[in-house]
Amino acid sequence: MTVWDRLVGQRHTIDSLRKAVAGHGMNHSWLFTGPPGSGRSNAAVAFAAALQCEQGGCGECHACHTVLNDSHADVAVIRTQKLSIGVDEVRELVRRAALSPMGERWQILVVEDADRLTEQACNALLKAIEEPTDRTVWMLCAPTVEDVLPTIRSRCRLVTLSTPTAAEVEEFLVGQGAEATSAAYAARASQSHIGRARALAFDDAVRARRQDVVAIPARLRSLASCMTAATRLAEVTRAEADEITTALDAKEKADLDASYGVVEKGRRPKEYAPALRELEKNQKTRAKRRHLDMVDRGLMDLISVYRDAIALQTGAESELVNAEVRADVAEIARASTPELNLRRIGWIFAAREQMLEFNVPVALALESMMVSLKVPESAHV
């Protein structure tokens, strides 16, 4: 299995990157763009592995394994858990970019979520991209080219990924060991979002939480049910976020204690308190972002229900994303119009913007949204 097998439905991209590895069209700065779930960061890491591999990405050698496992000495990947990537993080990467690689090939720096770079961070990064060393390669990942400053993207070679088809995602999941029925469901329910599909195919708890979310629209028949649904969605997404962050927080705290000798010495050096405060601040920021990410995922699942209702109402010849709750979708379609469901989708996006862009409290935004989505009184049986 080569490193390119990690990329689902990206044949054109793979061909282009393989040519670059072979020396045709190689560049010192790259911008990987594509919709959520298209695998843009996977493409960047696979490209990095291929550049470090003597065979162009065999997937079996030491170089490939270390890059794919984030342990290669000459490949740095910055994955922020914060709401933004600050200038201090970028300056450290710029410092590293100026060094010669320890091996005989490339010094590679991959920045996931480059759209989260602050203005200062962008300015620090720009100079490094403008004047790269001979053996340094920058790889930036962002949803669209518009999410990156024009001065930066103009210096990068663009790699555009597309959303794979459900059939391609299903085939990939089966290759990863998923049962055929689980793979088919996951590919459809994730709307070809590869990371989400993998979680749905292999994690029963993730599937149960999604089923809970897509059942919400049919229940919104009173003000009380709207408040209950908002509370439930906030709690479910918080629990999912906590599952991810709690263990990581504990490990980081243990590592901090060990680095300051708190465990062995039984005392706390004066430098420990400010370090602990900084750690707790970063963990709080990360927890907030993770919760918002989970809420955002839930909102996309809600949108898929109303999209299915519109498909039924307009007779669109496409498979329902939520075929397992077809009866609920049919009832929503019967009790509404396509225009109303389009407005409902707009209200969900408005709530999303309130939380992600304007920092409106999650509970408040969700309560307002659920009330807007409520089934009209005239439609009650």
Task: Describe the protein's topology.
Layout: H1 11-21, E1 29-33, H2 40-52, H3 62-68, E2 75-78, H4 87-97, E3 107-111, H5 119-130, E4 136-142, H6 150-153, E5 157-160, H7 166-175, H8 180-189, H9 194-202, H10 204-214, H11 216-219, H12 223-259, H13 262-265, H14 272-314, H15 326-334, H16 338-356, H17 362-373
Parallel strand pairs: 1-4, 1-5, 2-3, 3-4
Helix pairs in contact: 1-2, 2-3, 4-5, 7-8, 8-9, 12-14, 12-17, 14-15, 14-16, 16-17
Strand content: 5-15%
- Distance, first to last CA: 56 Å
The count of DSSP E runs of length 2 or more, i.e. the number of strands, is 5
Average pLDDT metric: 91
Shape: globular
Quaternary structure annotation = single chain
Tally of separate domains: 3
Structural class: alpha/beta
Q: Number of DSSP helices?
A: 17
What is the radius of gyration computed over CA atoms, rounded to a whole number of angstroms?
23 Å
The strands making up the biggest β-sheet line up spatially as 2-3-4-1-5
Task: Describe what is shown at a glance.
The protein has 17 helices and five strands. It is of the alpha/beta class.
